[in-house]
Amino acid sequence: MIKDMKFIINGGRELSGNITVGGSKNTALKLIAATLIVDGTTTLLNVPKITDIERMLEILSYLGAKTRWSGHKLIINTSGANQQTLPVRISQKLRGSIVFIGPLLARFGKAFLPYPGGCAIGERPLTAHLELFKDGGVKVREIGSGDSKKYSFTLSGQLKDKLRLTERSVTATENAIFLGVGLSKKLTIANVAAEPEIDDLIDFLRRAGANIERLSPTDIVILPHQKLSGVTYGIKGDRIEAGTWLVAGALLGKKLVVKGFDPAYLKTPLFFLKKMGAMFSVGRNFITISRAPKLIAQDLTTAVYPGFPTDLQSPFGLLLTQATGTATVNETLFDNRLRYLKELENMGAAVRLNSSREAVISGPHYLHGTRIDSLDLRAGATMILAGLIARGQTTVNNAEIIDRGYENVNQKLKKVGADIKRID
Hints:
Layout: E1 6-10, E2 15-20, H1 25-34, E3 41-45, H2 51-62, E4 66-70, E5 73-77, H3 88-91, H4 101-108, E6 110-114, H5 127-136, E7 138-143, E8 150-155, E9 162-164, H6 170-183, E10 187-190, H7 196-208, E11 211-216, E12 219-223, E13 232-234, H8 239-252, E14 253-259, H9 267-276, E15 279-282, E16 286-290, E17 300-301, H10 313-321, E18 325-330, H11 340-346, E19 350-353, E20 358-363, E21 371-373, H12 377-389, E22 393-397, H13 399-402, H14 409-415, E23 419-423
Parallel strand pairs: 2-14, 3-13, 9-10, 17-18, 21-22
Antiparallel strand pairs: 1-22, 1-23, 3-5, 4-5, 6-8, 7-8, 10-12, 11-12, 14-16, 15-16, 18-20, 19-20
Helix pairs in contact: 1-2, 1-7, 4-6, 5-6, 6-7, 8-12, 10-12
């Protein structure tokens, strides 16, 4: 990955026309891991070409699989996979690498994981995963410490028929599903995540031949089945990218059409936009949004789905800087996800940080262009939006962080009227 990339933005331009979101990053990452428990060739459609996907494919190739791109179509064959250890260099940069553990255990009975990396948004302990595997009958061993820490997982004895997650973690839910489906055994999983990406994974596995279903929003059951066969599967539009562009439309839109996703996946953010006074209309797979004459501040608290998504907290935090009144933002999931507010403060926003998880934002305040940093993936996208509304020129550093989850972001924004260029 090339470092020290920048975006140069001249703010104040109206945004109009169509902006199409890419395939869901979080769905694609997990379906790539799922191919390890599928026989034959899997073809995934509408896969975003972002660095997190590239890293997952590097891991898959390291394990012995073969992958091939054709546009946004990704063809994967894992018949040659023969490794049980994830590569240190890549795994330490990618939090999503943890979802290879379930498939590797199901396929080989063993798996070795370097401590996974990702965005610096606070402590994300592996407790939910470690407890899941231990409770299920997997022997888990921690080896080393610090940067060299890794974990060893080994199937030992009978896997239990019932598991209950210690928290409603998305990736822990996926690992439990992979283990049960990969071993083709009866398994009931309680306290699972309700995110739409889990349902997409279930849909994919069922099409491949798995016998799996949701009994309720928090319970999943897996029953024995025949071998899974390769399928062709289309990935739905990314709801977080869609939410990002909706904020752009609420700030600068003149009939900006955000399309290529299911608006039902954004019920809570859309309700929040409505309360703020945003002007939008909802179609079957698109939303048309325009700048509102006045936005009204509303308190925001993140929560697991169907609550307000933590991944949209930072763009909506920016939106609150342009709203009339004072709002409190409570980040309930991650410790360091409010750091971006210091960058907005440098641009003229009125912000008070009460703690690492709570902030008060007052508005509206004009933002002025300056040099700002992308601190994590979603904060980086928020810095781009801040540059779009700021007076003067803004330089957004560390553009490579944004590449982890947004494909061709500058090209998409240029097409709808933004003055933005990328410097490598």
